[in-house]
């Protein structure tokens, strides 16, 4: 046998052997897939039981009614929450909330893109300073990156953004330019679990905390999976269509131990909400 022919024979033998090995591995993987999946579930359940995340109670707007603010912030405090977020930014409301909850409870302020001028916001930050606001959330429209950069330089408190950002590149631009101190990436708005994790790890690279917006039932497990998650936002808006409840222990959220999302949907309630009489328009 000539040398070229010998080399070809050796290569064919190696290829055949490799194919046999690969086939054997695939068969073994297929046979053990259920066992491996179960092990992963058990490992995740163990992580979930041990990982507690701080929870901030996200309160609704009270039209500037100081008595309502005091009553509801006190109620949240009595339920064990150690971090409370307002959706009002007037000095009177923030002062009333701080008086009601004391100095040891974190207080956040969500403005829902209320202003369009960084200078005004800087003034507001100075006025809010005596009340130890943990962060000012969405003070500007999310698309105005330039004003966020300007604000971040001059503001005297952390600026939180994210619920109105819809792509990894948007968060990258904010983080690269130092335009935010808190990232509030929303799993439903960013496109799912994988892009959420990408944003969380991107924020980690910039030493920025992640405090996701909404969907606490889903975000609690994601927060347990990343090192830079600080808070889970408590908004029980899925209670009408679920039978499971997020466990809160001493103001901290506990991820579910069940596999998957850990959410038990109330399909009958969902079906009722889906029932409607279609309207047919004839040309």
What is the overall pLDDT average?
Answer: 80
The largest β sheet comes out as: 10 strands, mixed
Overall geometry comes to globular
Order of helices and strands: HEHEHEHEHEHEHHEHEEEH
Which architecture name does CATH use?
A: Alpha-Beta Barrel
The third-level CATH topology is: TIM Barrel
What is the gyration radius calculated from CA atoms?
A: 26 Å
Terminal-residue CA separation: 82 Å
**CATH superfamily label:** Enolase-like C-terminal domain
Structural class: alpha/beta
Q: List low-pLDDT spans.
A: 3-51
How many domains would you count in the coordinates? 1
Q: Helix fraction?
A: 40-55%
User: Strand fraction band?
Assistant: 5-15%
CATH class type: Alpha Beta
Helix count, DSSP H or I runs of 4 or more residues: 10
Number of DSSP-assigned strands: 10
Task: Write structural notes for this entry.
This protein has ten helices and ten strands. The N terminus is likely disordered. Strands 1, 2, 3, 4, 5, 6, 7, 8, 9 and 10 form a ten-stranded mixed sheet that branches. With 283 residues, it is of the alpha/beta class. β3, α4 and β4 form a beta-alpha-beta unit. It has a single domain, classed as Enolase-like C-terminal domain (TIM Barrel), CATH 3.20.20.120. The termini are far apart.
């Amino acid at each position: 046998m000539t040398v070229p022919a010998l080399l070809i024979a050796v290569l064919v033998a190696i290829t055949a052997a490799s194919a046999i090995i690969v086939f054997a591995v695939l068969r073994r993987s297929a046979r053990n897939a259920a066992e491996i999946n179960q092990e992963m579930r058990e490992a995740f359940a163990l992580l979930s039981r041990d990982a507690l995340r701080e929870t901030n109670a996200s309160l609704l707007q009270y039209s500037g009614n100081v008595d309502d603010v005091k009553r509801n912030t006190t109620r949240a405090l009595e339920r064990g929450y150690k971090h409370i977020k307002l959706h009002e930014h007037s000095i009177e409301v923030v002062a009333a909330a701080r008086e009601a909850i004391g100095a040891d409870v974190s207080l956040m302020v969500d403005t829902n893109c209320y202003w369009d001028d960084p200078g005004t916001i800087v003034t507001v930050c100075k006025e809010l300073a005596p009340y130890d606001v943990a962060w000012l959330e969405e003070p500007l429209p999310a698309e105005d990156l330039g004003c966020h950069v300007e604000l971040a330089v001059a503001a005297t408190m952390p600026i939180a953004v994210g619920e109105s950002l819809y792509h990894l590149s948007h968060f990258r631009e904010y983080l690269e330019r130092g335009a935010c101190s808190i990232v509030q990436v929303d799993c439903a708005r960013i496109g799912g679990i994988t892009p959420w994790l990408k944003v969380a790890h991107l924020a980690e690279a910039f030493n920025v905390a992640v405090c996701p917006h909404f969907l606490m039932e889903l975000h609690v497990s994601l927060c347990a999976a990343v090192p830079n998650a600080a808070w889970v936002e408590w908004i029980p808006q899925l209670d009408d269509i679920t039978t499971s409840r997020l466990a809160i222990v001493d103001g901290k959220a506990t991820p579910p131990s069940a596999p998957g999302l850990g959410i038990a949907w109330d399909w009958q309630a969902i079906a009722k909400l889906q029932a409607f009489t279609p309207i047919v328009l004839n040309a």
